[in-house]
Amino acid sequence: MSLDLGSEKLQTLDKDLEHIDRCISLNLLKRRNFKLATGKTPEDVLDYLTNERPLFSSQTLVHGDFCMPNIIIDENNFGLIDVGD
Q1: Residue 63 — pLDDT band, cuts 50, 70, 90?
Q2: How many domains does the chain have?
Q3: Which of 19, 25, 42, 66 is most buried per CB count within 10 Å?
Q4: What's the pLDDT at 62?
């Protein structure tokens, strides 16, 4: 099953990793804040994500509106809805 929301709505993990790499190269991140928040450098995190790439699926939809009306529970399974603007 595929979900077609249009290319402007969905990005692949590969595109996200490329974007992160560009941001690091252009020094767009507040490195000190990043290190304080994560305990790692941006390069460390990018290296981890790149090296562990097979563990992450580009078919994953990340849900940004996590709240009770958007959660479906059925026995031992759950899902999230509300794919809107």
Answers
A1: low
A2: 1
A3: 42
A4: 61
CA distance 52 to 79: 25
Q: Which domain holds residue 74?
A: 13-80
For residue 74, the cross-strand partners are 77
Residue 48 lies in a domain: yes
Tell me the residue type at 9: K
Check pLDDT > 90 for residue 2.
Answer: no
Whether 27 is covered by a domain: the verdict is yes
55 inside domain: yes
pLDDT band at 3 (very low <50, low <70, confident <90, very high): very low
